[in-house]
Design brief:
The protein is 37% helix and 18% strand. With 293 residues, the protein is an alpha/beta fold. It folds into 2 domains: 172 residues, Rossmann fold; 93 residues, Pantoate--beta-alanine Ligase, Chain: A,domain 2 (2-Layer Sandwich), CATH 3.30.1300. The structure holds pantoate. The site of pantoate has 10 residues, from strand 2 and helix 6. Its main location: cytoplasm. This is Pantothenate synthetase. One of its GO terms (molecular function) is ATP binding.
Length: 293
């Protein structure tokens, strides 16, 4: 049996452990999570283990990234199960600070990344990205890793964190990891646990719609047409589409017309009360260019 994982719950304890690893010249990776670990998280951990000699996984269900009426209270929590998975995955430290460690009395700071955060998930979840950016800044300062890994499922979050780290000169490399999917294509997410049987059967249509849309866009169908048809398909099947957009993969600004360069399709849609997100890279098909005469 793998030895039980070391669990650290205080900022001071975490700093002490990192200082010890630094003395030993170990390369350190951080995988920030909110727990309820699933194979998607385990793939981030596997990548962290490939890249670094010591791996920290943080578990903190961050209240400041949930809006009013969102699922903070209902968010799945399973510390015992998570620790068993982390032990099995060979993680060195589970960092599990509580809210008092993270938000001392008088806490008054917010990190806001302008530009990337106002649209898409930022429009439907006001304050969400400030909550994420603030907590990730704190985790990076507390764990001082060489690298930190985030899933591409939260594509807007990944770009926001990269921007923030560059702007604040935080000395860490931010790596993205590809979306992990169920066998039927549904992106893995802790929130999939909320879906009832009928919704779970319907959920993979989100990914299939993105794939079909990517095909149409590559074939030269204008973005406006492809988007409208795909949104209609999802709504007709029982989704409530929050947004479905084709955007520039770096700036997240909408693109229109026939694709002339790679882009990304991002979607958020509700099945009942459960909000699912997904995304896919899209690119125009290489067409034979006429030779200049
Ligand atoms: O992606 C998540 O699970 C969270 O947004 C993160 C990065 C752990 C910050 O709370």
């Amino acid at each position: 049996m793998a030895p039980a994982i070391s669990t650290i719950r205080t900022v001071t304890g975490m700093r002490r452990r990192v200082a010890q690893w630094r003395n030993e010249e170990r390369k350190i990776a951080l995988v920030p999570t909110m727990g309820a670990l699933h194979p998607g998280h385990l793939s981030l951990i596997a990548k962290a283990r490939e890249k670094a000699e010591r791996v920290i996984v943080s578990i903190f269900v961050n209240p400041t990234q949930f809006g009013e009426g969102e699922d903070f209270d209902a968010y799945p929590r399973d510390e015992k199960g998570d620790l068993a998975k982390l032990t099995e995955a060979g993680v060195d430290v589970a960092y599990i600070p509580d809210a008092r460690q993270m938000f001392a009395p008088g806490f008054a700071t917010r990190v806001h990344v302008k530009g990337l955060t106002e649209r898409l998930c930022g429009a439907s979840r006001p304050g969400h990205f400030d909550g994420v950016s603030t907590i990730v800044t704190k985790l990076l300062l507390q764990c001082a890793p060489d690298l930190a890994i985030f899933g591409e499922k939260d594509y807007q979050q990944l770009l926001t964190i990269k921007r923030m780290v560059a702007d604040l000169d935080i000395p860490v490399e931010i790596l993205g990891a590809p979306i992990e999917r169920e066998e039927d294509g549904l992106a893995r997410s802790s929130r999939n646990a909320y879906l009832n049987k009928r919704q779970r059967e319907l959920a993979p249509l989100l990914q299939r719609t993105l794939q079909d849309m990517a095909y149409d866009l590559a074939e030269g169908r204008p973005v406006e047409d492809a988007t409208a048809a795909s949104a209609f398909r999802l709504e007709s099947a029982g989704f409530k589409v929050d947004y479905l957009e084709v955007v520039d993969p770096e700036t997240l600004q909408p693109v229109d017309g026939v694709l002339s360069k790679p882009a990304r399709t991002l979607v958020a849609a509700y099945l009942g009360k459960t909000r699912l997100i997904d995304n896919l890279g899209v690119k125009p098909k290489q067409r034979n260019r006429k030779r200049a005469s």
